[in-house]
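TA notes. Do not distribute before section.
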Amino acid sequence: MASQRTKQNKFKKRALSSLLIFSMLPTMLVPATTFASESEAPSTANVADTTFRVKNLKTEQAVNPLGLDTLKPRLSWQMGSDARSQKQTAYQVLVASTPELLSQDQGDVWDSGKLLSDQSANVAYAGEELQTSHRYYWKVRIWDKDDQMSDWSVQAWWEMGLLKPSDWQASWITVPNEQIPNNRKYSIDLDFTILEAAAGFVFGSQDSSHFYMWQINVKDKPYAQFRPHKWNPNPSVIKEKNISSIIPDAAKLNTAHHMKIDVNGDQISTYVDQQLIDTLQDSSFSLGKIGFRQHKDNLTNERASFDNIKIKDENGNSLFTEDFSNPDENAFGAGKIENGQLVLGELASDLVIKQSERHVPQLRKAFTITKPVKKATVYATALGLYELSMNGHRVGVDHLSPGWTDYNQFVQYQSYDVTGMLESGNNALGALLGDGWYSGHVAMAGEHVYGQKPEMLLQMNVEYQDGTKDQIVSDASWKISTAGPIVTSDLLMGETYDARNELQAWDKPGYNDTDWIAAGTVNDFKGKLIAQVGPTVQAAEELKPKVITVPTPGTYILDLGQNMVGWARLQVNGPAGSKVKMRFGEMLNDDGTLYTANLRTAKQTDEYTLKGGGNEVYEPHFTFHGFRYVELTGYPGVPTLDSITGVVVHSNTEPTGTFESSNSMVNQLYSNIVWGQKGNFLSVPTDCPQRDERMGWTGDAQIFARTASYNMNTMTFFEKYMRDMMSGQGSDGAYPDVAPYLSIVGRGNNAWGDAGVIVPWTVYLMNNDKRVIEDNYASMVKWIDYLKTNSSGLIRPEGGFGDWLNVDDNTPTDVVNTAYFAYSTMLMSKMAKVIGNNADAQKYETLFNDIRTAFNQRFVDKDGHIKGETQTGYVLALQMNLLPEDKQPLAAKYLVDKIKGRDWHLSTGFLGVGYLLPVLTKAGYSEVAYHLLTNDTYPSWGYSIKNGATTIWERWNSYTKEGGFGDVGMNSFNHYSLGSVGEWMYRFAAGIEADSDQPGFKHTIIQPTVGGEFQYVKAEYDSIYGKIASKWQVDGNKFSLETTIPANTTATVYVPTDDQHTVKEGGKSIDEVEGVRFVKMDGDKAVYEVGSGSYSFTSLLTIEGSPLSSVSLTSDQTKMIVGDTTQLKVTAKKENGVTVDLAKAQSVFKSSDVNVATVDAAGKVKTVGFGKVKITVEVTYEGVTLASSKSIFVSNGKNLALGKNASSNNTITVAPTWHIANLTDGNFDLRYSSNGFASKDTANNPIWVEIDLGSVQPFNNLVLYPRLDSKTVDGNIASFPTDFDIQVKADNGEYKTVKQVRGESNLDGGPQRYSFETEQARYVKIVVTQFGAMPHDDIYYRFQLAEAEVYNVEEQTVLTGPSSVSSGQAFDIAYRLSGVTESVYAQDLSFTYDPEQMEFLSVDSLLDDLKIVAVSDVAKNPGKVRILSAVVGGDLSANVDLLALHMRAKSASSVPATLTLSDVIFANGAGLEKEIEGTSYSVQIGAPINKEVLIALIADAQAKHDAAVEGTHAGQYPVGAKATLQAAIDKAQSVVKDDSVTQQQLEQATTELTSALQAFKASVIIATPGDTNGDDRISIGDLAIVASYYGKTSKDPNWNLYEKADINKDGIIDIADLAALARLIIG
């Protein structure tokens, strides 16, 4: 072998020396000037990299963060280098107390020295103890793979916050408590109506636990009771009195009554309907506030309405009055105002108290700066929300601070450097204080979940240049006003702003605040203050409206074109007092108005009252909305596109990922995923941003965490969320279902609580962040203990949410719960190992194996079937490694079978969807994964996109154009959970995968998955080490992959191919490339190890075809009217479920009756006559032809049955789907059904339905529409009768049978038409004596219809034929009768035509029983022909073509030739004659046709076909390509053989065959340039072939053999070709 290699090397040297001699010839022979320089140039990989550098310094994943309270901040940096296989081998970090010291390379706080380590992510600070409010400056330098040292990085810094409780000198401040007047003499009048159970009126309220409640109760006893209550603070019933004499039984409900309460000191008298019912003594409370209490629980639902409330003092002066006349102004903020009454019931909170009007507080503090300032830092937070300003300028860019936490546990504070905002002398701090999550509406929990009113805490530390310090703190010296412009501001309800109340310059020095009150100090916060964790909420971008519509006068809808979260900035100009209302919604109703039904109790409404005087700009402060559309009302003038700007708001998570593919729908899906994340990652990962929920559902978060981490840098965002989870963890270890925890939702549900384990693991995996594991470890241990304790034999009990919102495929919850128990345990074992706790790692590994065993024993049978037999059940078992190795392929197959059984659609809900495509791909079913990804029919991601989605929807069918909106109770159009497929798009489609052994993408797995007929996929991900890129393309059998691996990391690259020798990098064979090492073949992928750098791989693929397996033809219309058009849709699928690209297939459409409807080559249908027609498409793909049909009924008149009364002797009613009225309602989705019967035979007890047309009128056709929503077990039409009679009758008399149908069995899925002789009648009856087959999901036989229609069809004659013919061409004209319902036994037809334009040849009958009896002699009467015909086998079926007149065109003419049929005479069996009006037909005669072009093209195509060879090598054609071309040739041949072919058909056939031939030629597998011997590589063997053909030219008769050696394509094989090929070999 060695000697052979030596010979080869010698031969190579000789060849190269020859080429060097050639290269010295004149340049006109060979452009070889770059050849020598390229061969002499050293490889970049062999040169020391002097350009590497340190970049992107971050502390706690932030650039120069302010206000940290972690004592060991994590430092990260990246290595910058373009060289391959570059890595860090050591680093040195310097941390200094001043930038000056750091510039002198002095780390007086920490000098790590040179540490031999490749770690550059999350390096924990290890210097001196950090001090409160100190700023620390740092830099780093590194050593590379050759031990070369970099320059120092640029300086970065971080600043500590307040580290100890004693560092806080500020006090919590708020609006002082309202003083309740001590008024004990007053009267209250009100009207009330009990709607259900009771009405409760509250008065004397001092707060939410001290008040009176007077109740009239009609539920607890058989009679009406007066039940006065007192809360003080516990509730008690003072007494119960029977008042049935005043409110009798008949007046208990829905009857208005009047109540008067007269308070005189300690005596309270109560009147109902002007009668005294009680007097009692009690002096607990003074006047106080009023309100209502309407209780609801499982047993009681108290509902009542109230009106005309009046309160007067002892002198009769009015203290309060409310008649609820304005529905937009509800003083109580709850219930609904309807018909001038306040209706209360089913409230979020039982108690409704009228609050005093108190605008959003404005707080200010004036102070003086007397000497130069070195640094000033504000530390601020709130129980609620706050905005700060300094000297009239906003502090910071954050919104909705301090964010949402469980305020009972902890609250975050924010830090701001305000040094540059201070002025010498007088200064002022200003603050706005909003309710936010603390005291505003939260989800379905109502208001005041955490507290009654917002509070603020602020401390400004000032350090002067002389070294002295000062503090400005929140305390009683601050001033507060509640008379400002923000009337109300609520996260769910919106904001009301009255610009007329603006206090000019209120946050500037010198403002006169003497009318302001002193702040009240409070000390009720018992939680922990922590520094901001992760990103704050900020305004990220702005959107402008695309269009304005006006659905109703004065109402303007502005469409931003994108569902988003934030608010709208309003620009307006108008008179003072004008009120503009902005309502926000995600969708529009069909009438163009704003859709808000899905908001539930959330109002999402902002109101702005103008101050007047010019242009005004308004943005809300303490609210946010989920919306695409903004509705403007009250706008002065007409708004423009500039009147509104959408301000997009979310947590400031830095974008890290991008994704793009050749599939535009998938690109939109990616956009929807990203926008869904933007809209819901707002302080916490909420489920939805618009309705009254917006909670941090943990199950949603865990399934989406991986996708989220690719899209954006979510490391610290999720770390904060884990604090929320820990703060909500129960004492028993149960994690909450929502975080921050709310008591209205539970704890301990699997898949939701498991987020406490899955999210930390995901953060670690994506960011190499051990601290998230360490911080959460004890909490995670408690969770696993909780699961184990609350299991039986390691099987978790049933219950919980399960696979939420699956598509009728419920996975048993004990399967789901146990799977997640096992999964969390497996992850715990891994995380214990990560932090060095090997004992726990072993313990949890053992526990996982025990759960796995229990899972298999309980849920898995011997053949690998899993309990429930659901898609998600199999997905979870495979994803979570719960099955023995031998059962995993079986489970994967069952999963695919389940998908195929749903016509290649998914049925997974929230839990299954994220793992579905990864599981399929890992199991070898990547094409199925791609198919699910690209589906656009329900249920699929594409279905929502097809219906207009710009974000991910909560449901697979939140809206459809056919069915409208989904369940308004839970129908979000921005709900990221189903977007968890984004993980697969990055990990598998693009192939950027993390390695858990080297997390944070220290080692990346590049594993692109080719499929789905995608031409390319590309993605980028900015990891903690730098940017990773992957872009693959497929062109025929050629594959290319461009990938970038950041410095200081490595990667394993999987290149798709069956032959590793076809793989090249940078155009070179792998063994010639530095830094790329072949590892192994893994199935159909070659595996390589690479270092950092950019790589360009190419390979050849073996394309394995999957045969065409199904074709589906669909239409939006089942019924049409003459003259209508519709576009048919064709879907063709391969055997593996992948949808065929129809551009690569042949589709031929046909109409069963062109007299009813025609169809063009593109599938566009046009209806021309009454009747039923079947449209068929034949699809040919890779040699396989399949067909599909669609039946359409075409009417040309009025449906006489539409909306008319229908009745039956046997019917079921299940509203709204099943009802007898549905038979004639025009809605095919609402149906009629009889009851169920065990037998098909109903002859002894016929089932009938009757339609009353309303009056006697003529009709002759009945059309019956079968139900199509459910088929029989063998896929046929269900419940359509096989034996039935059609009967009619007039107003009186007996029914007459007009048609008998027996053995109806040839239903084709469409409407069924039944014709009979014209009858004058009012009633139509269908009498069924034999049922058809039952649906697959039923156990009874029934008579079921979607619709019944009745028509009176006009009688007419029809002539049809080609629209144009060529001179000398023979053609046919078809004759038929249409709409004739009488029996026809004989016909007399007379035709006339111009004998100079066309010639009559003969006539043929098109029916066996129709005989041509006589034809007149046209020679005697040129231009005239009379035809007599008779029916000998029964009466005529008149609605089909009857005769074919064979004609020949004569000379071409610009004037169309016309054949006229005069009046037709026919006779029935009794000899009665009838005359029908005739018709005419015209045809354009053109020049003679020429078939020679097509014949020559056929010969050329056949020759190309016969010479071609299918295979995978260069010059060969893909498998199936020849069959496709042959099918096109055969089709063209049939056109040539057709004597009646038109020129138009000839031209069409020529075009089609030309296209097919071009596609065939383009499919040839192209050889790699220079690969002359076809071995798929460029080597010395190719050089030898070029040398052997030296001197050949394009004039040589065998040039086709030599041409491959003409490397530069100049028509001659010479030294230039040898030199060019040599350059390719050398590289």
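Switch to the second chain here.
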Amino acid sequence: MLVVHGLWLPAGHLGLWAEDSTPPPRATRRAARPHPFAAPAEVVAAALGDLAAKGSHGSATLRLPTAGGRPLDSPELVRTEAPARSRAAVALAPWRVPTLELDPDAAVTLLRGLDDGVAHGASLRHAAEVAAFAADLVRRGRLLPAVAGDAAAWRPLLTGGDAAWARALAAALPPSARAGGGDPAALVGGMLDAMVDAAARAALEGVRLAGGRGTTSGSWLGALTGRDRRVDADASELATLAEAVAQWQRDAAGGAVRACFRLVEPGEEETRDWRVDFALQAADEPSLVVDAEEVWRSRGALDALARHLDAPQETLLTELGRASRLWTELDDALRTAKPSTLDLDVTGAHRFLREGAPLLHAAGFGVLLPTWWGRPGSRLGAKLRAKSRTAPGTVASASAVGMRSLVDYQWELALGDEPLSEKELRELAKLKTPLVRLRGRWVELDAKHLAAGLKLLKSGGEMSVGELLHLGLSMEDDPDALPIQAVTADGALGDLLAGEAERHLEPIDPPESFAGTLRPYQRRGLAWLTFLQSLGLGGILADDMGLGKCLSGDMSVFVNGKLVTAERLWAEYAGPSMSDGEGEWAAPTRPLMVNALSGGPFPGPMVEAPVRRLYRQHVSEWLRRIRLDDGSEVLITRRHKLLGTHGWTNAIKVGDRLCVPARLTWRGEPVDPDLTTLLAWQISEGHELPTGALRISQRDTTVLDRVRRSALDVGARLGVRVNRPTITVNDKGCGILDIRSVAYMRYLEERGYRWGQRSAGKAIPDFVVAADDATIALFLREFFTAEGSVVPAMRMVEISSASPVIMRQLATMLRRFGIWLRFSVKHKRATNGSGILRPYHVGVIGGPSLRLFQEHIGFSDPMKTAKLAKVCAKPANTNVEGVPAGDILSYAKSVTGLPARHFGVGTVYFAGGQETSRASAALAVAGMDRILSGEAAAEYAARPRTRWTAAVTEAYRRLDVDGLGDLRDALAWRAGSEVRFAEVVEVEDVHHTGWVYDFEVAMHHNFVAGGMLCHNTVQLLALISGDGPQVGPTLLVCPMSLVGNWEREAAKFAPGLRVHVHHGAERARGAEFAAAVRAADIVVTTYSVAARDAEALGEIPWHRVVVDEAQAIKNAATRQAAAVRALPARHRVAVTGTPVENRLADLWSIMDFANPGLLGGAAAFKKKYALPVERHGDEEAAARLRRITGPFVLRRLKTDKTIISDLPEKLEMEVLCNLTGEQASLYQAVVDDMLERIERSDGIERRGLVLATMSKLKQVCNHPAQFLHDDTRLAGRSGKLARLEEILDEVLAAGEKALLFSQYAEFGGMLRAHLSARHGREVLFLHGGVSKKDRDAMVARFQGDGGPPLFVLSLKAGGTGLTLTAANHVVHVDRWWNPAVEDQATDRAFRIGQRRAVQVRKFVCAGTVEEKVAEMIREKRGLAARIVGTGEQWLTELSTTELRQLFALEAGAVVE
């Protein structure tokens, strides 16, 4: 086989070379010797066909991984005979390869037309991604002409998501593409530039750009098309042209402020008068918009967009001029002196919606459209209802039913959820207008869609089940066809279409030949597999390994002035409990006061209220985690209601507004002012030691002197001895206040303070949080002076903390003064001088709250005080803390028929894009009062009569006073209540087994609270056991490590099944293999054998093909994936823990195996789903994909106790270990040596050094003996080993077993010898060199009673497939940079059959690269969570400065 690779050459060409699996000649030792497996260029050209016909032949020298004098195979290369394993070290070495070189024009053509004729290496696939991105940019017009040297060129215009995608492509450049040297960003940038130019010229084929003949500009324009790029001009003229073009490019690309276009629809009494209003908008803060009229009224500079604009009027004209080049209809407006709006008729408005708005938006301009546009209810759609010809619910058991069975169907037409009759449709067709107001809302009418709809209403009849499924699941949205809004059916077909088949199917029992018992969830799974088989469909058993990470008992309640978890409240305050049959009630042993909203149709002000009783109930159900955009979070039962804009509700979705208290009340006790001041600086800038020493750092020594005096006064007043505090200045100019007092430490600890916490674990003591207002104000003033900053550009105060607890406490304390602190998590550099990138909780105060902060809190620093005063002098942005009034106002306008101006506020508030201030909302309430009182009607009646006034007068006459009164009351509540309205940003269902809590609050009844791989073997064996003898055999493909597992499980659960293992050098071939298959019910083989014996396996008419650990075929380009997908079978099942690991193409590959063609071809899938979801975060495309794939994916949560009641929880913990002195010395020596070498290197050499450095440092963290490769003693030299010994002593004393994982086989061997000698027991050791026979024996011994209690495994050899449930302890001695690998290894113990809590410990050396990367590891689980890991290459792209910070050994790392 051939594997073709690609690299971008310095000459600006694409170089192609290929590996050949044919055995090579003997390797030589010459420098840059010929690659022994590289195919000649002519062979590569022949393999690629006509697409490579224009390539020239050359050669390139690549530095490739090498061992034993030969280059290693790429991952994509599969040999018929595996090469002998080399024990030599792997290193980079130069190899010369013959190349087929293509210019950009030929390269784009080839990359856009790649097929599956040959295997593609990662570098070639990456180049194809770049070419596809280039074509996409050209298609969307995101490019500009340029001058490049003496040539004309097209260059990409990268902004926003496009710029982010370009950076992602550079970061993802495979190592093989960098083997020739070069910076990834430069390589990808050069490739993208060249391919955009080539793609643009291909798109302009046959077009000639005319210019002045004989002029430099004319020559340049002519060179922008065709193949000849050279500009015929002398150097000086070219330089002048290049400067002019560059200036024009800067103008075309725009800046920080852009033009914005808002389409305004006609009033209720109008239908034709549409308009587009112009405005300026901050490009990075779209909510900041200034109307053109305000721009023209401004004199000189403008500060309203959070940035200074010296010439706003010129900016507006420039931006409108840029836009007019794209949308020429703006020209009429630009002929006026002060353009601010463009009037349109209904046809023009529709043209703007369909053509102008998308064009302007794609070019980077702001576009604001009516909220109804784009919603399903604004377009005509079709719904298909099908009815099976058998009784509903019988499909699953009807063996005659299949993909060709027929169902009856009928079409319906609808606007959103409202059906349309044929009469209504014909009346709409007569209007011949693209937009019409129907039933109170604007809808789009397309003549083709109307005609198609009338035709559909007359159709109906029958279709096959296969046609129905394709139509209902794909629901293609062809812009030229009538959109299909829903496809429904009765019975089990309907359940399948809705993704509910598994839930509604009756569980079935396994056949009598099955020698086991299935749990209820397994019986339902068996019914699901049988059901899909009856329809000729395949399925994916996708079993999630994840656990819920949050318990309802951890939710904090504001009680007695402080934040207390619900779990702690019950533990500390619950008296004797009484059961009510479901839960427990208990009266509090001490008074508990919460804050509550007083009653009424809409709740009133915040009041203090006593808790009468505490309640808890043990549940096993789905809870709902709700997160708001201000950082608030709550985990509640689904029946629990929260206060929203329309009252108490449990119907909560993303985008809704929920109420958070604007103010909290508590009458606390005062705290000594000096103690308050000292604590503020101690918690914010202090470092505490267990000895009672306290060190506070601050550059301003006058501040430290003030804190020092407070410390002395605290000691004197409280009778606490404080040793003489001293202030020194370090060599960096930073002042340090040293305070030493064991008595002070004990004083605070006795009052609940946790002394000695790291930054992330700090908390403000409860006696301060629950103090009186004066204490709170003083503490906040000093704390914000230490940690806060004023950000004038954003008109806000910002504060950050590594501690989530502190941020929640600050938000609670500020709420005592009505100040809203909104916080979120961001990664920032640590402020302790280390510069480490850590997750910080960043809080901001803006809008009206900023003035409250200035009034009640402020700063003790004069400079910050002055900055704050200057910011507060500017107007507040109402969208920060505004009142969401748009829904009420627009509905009031709609139901009354009155113009917007009659409600007393501007029309901008009716569209929902701008929130009102509380004052503006009050004006709207006053306007409604005038309407309700009749005053507005009387005033309007005095006007001269016209056809317009007649319509408004009639609207007043028909006024629904009660209905408008209800709306008025609702708006008045929003404007005047003591709540603020936060947006729901996430609603997540979390399965929880444990206690949930509630509190009975006197009078007000509300309170403030803040914020599986399953045992699939048995199911599949039960399914196979039910196959009749006539149906044929099942082929099971799995990793080699699982072959023995399948043999054992089949012998145990289905002893009547005949199993043939097709594996090993002595496996059956030819007629012998065919005879073995005929005599078997199950044939078990491995992925590598499936690829090598693809022809022989493909000749067998398999009844079923099952792939276990299906992630092995996630890469569709590999030979084994193609071979497995090509196997003929009537039924297919894929078993995998994660259908999506790195990209959606993985899901396509697995689903294309299970149900070929369901997701279309790979190219179409990429265009329709992968690119929109992965590149643009398109949630709508993700939802469509979930709808299509959902019916064929049976997803299990192994922690769902309603499914598997006997599986215990998995307890994960990170164990920090210190280095010994020897380790620290070696660590620092490695850092110093390798950083110097890294600084002198570049390209692939530098990346190799970075990875080598990380490997060396991890070895040092494990043990000096591993790094030094010596045979000296192990005991007493490693912090990790010492901690491991302590843990294993406890494990063995309890009679339990443990798995010990290391990624290093050498270290695993060391551990085996040391632990065996230390404990006097046998220690098993599994690594890649262990044969299958020995591996199976090890597993059997470990699982058996009395077997060895300790099992050391190398992560790669023991990370998947094995069942090791005899262990209930898992220790990851060293860390792997791929979280999915660690999780799979952990789950060798955390599997079905495990009846004890599994404790998972992950060792990390404090203050080292391990601790700094550990946090990043936890962040690498994004894509799989959205639809159903990653490596370490990103680390090689860090700068030397960032690497120095990452590798640096921090203080506190060493403990002797």
